Amino acid sequence: MCTCITYENSSFYFGRNLDLDCSFGERVMITPRNFPLTFRHAGAQKRHYAMIGMAAQTEKFPLYADAVNEKGLAMAGLNFPGNAFYPEARGSGLEVASFEIIAWILGKCASVEEAEQYLDDLRIVSTAFADQMPPAPLHWMLADREKCIVLEAVREGLKVYENPVGVLTNNPPFDYHRINLSNYLNLTARSPENRFSDQIDLKPYAQGMGAAGLPGDASSASRFVRAAFLKLNSAAPKEEAADVSQFFHILDSVAMVRGAVVTESGTYDITTYSSCMNTQTGVYYYKTYDDSRIRKADMRETDLEGDRIWAKEL
Length: 314
Known about the structure:
By secondary structure, the chain is α+β, with helices and mostly antiparallel strands. It is built from five helices and 18 strands.
């Protein structure tokens, strides 16, 4: 369970809540331009765009859950069980393992438009990172300041959706979420007008009644609607501190509180971390479930010409 959003005000921001019942060893990680990215079926990128994001710490390969590169292209993977399907590698054509896709696209592409040039030929395959780490069922949101798209690898192949909403959650597939928004087209941030009947005088008795019916549960469909409503009606001063604060407030509205969502195995889903990336400056802001302070890491304060991954514990 996760929620990803874009946000544009003084700059363009991209980030997400990662909702899990456990940690995956996440670290803020910077991959400099000369760290060799070696892919299982797609060769190697000996030199590539630098990137910063949240990843599982490994010495061989950065396993990013979300990241942004130095050109302002950002990407995140979100849980998509029951729908995600990765075929076996055939050993021909452009094949990228699901755990590699964020690093491959962000290392190679400067924009969504550039990434789209590869998508017709791209196959996301089921190669595992390790025997004890099978491929996670994911779909992805990819965005820059000009465009946002969703990638879903399903049995019919790789589906690519334009995403003008700039929000992604989990199941069902993205086309459902777009259609489902129409069920809430009467919601408004303003005080509502009486549309019930012109034969009876009805007036709002409290502030906020224009959004009566906005879903509040933790399901992916409800989180999609709630995040979209708050993001698209957001109002904040055009300055970095206000934008970052606003971004996290939107994510907080769809965050998981321990105990509110019990998994089938009896564990609790929580928002293990929330992130906000300024795609223009390369600054990665984040907070965790047990530490609500907003901290940051700046990609450009490291040696981007280096050949070693930089990692910071949360």
